[in-house]
Amino acid sequence: MTHHFSVRVYYEDTDAGGIVYHANYLKFIERARSEWVREAGIDQRQLRADQGLIIVVRRIEADYLRPALYDDLLTVTTGLRLLGGARIELDQAVLRGEVPMFTARVTLVCVGADGRAARLPDALRRALESG
Fold first, then answer.
1. Residues of the chain falling short of pLDDT 70
2. Catalytic annotation on 50?
């Protein structure tokens, strides 16, 4: 199942030429991941408070394909690629209409308060698989 998240390109997202600044694509996909998790019924603050677990980015492989421009309406798609013991792999894309502007493979890891990898709780796993 693929999650969709809309984002409008504002002036603050662009460089002097009106093109989305490269680092802002990472912000767009972060927002989309946060909404994907929220819509799956996962409260990340509660996960940290109750179990001492957080989900962090370990790796991002990114491809910048075409420039998005000021005032574009973009869609960020998020799809679950792999769900391991402590690892989550996602495929994300930023599209203008049907045209990909940016794609990324994102690896997330569940970690405990000590910063070490921790097994994904079963409830979290079920929520991500169904969300």
1. 131
2. no
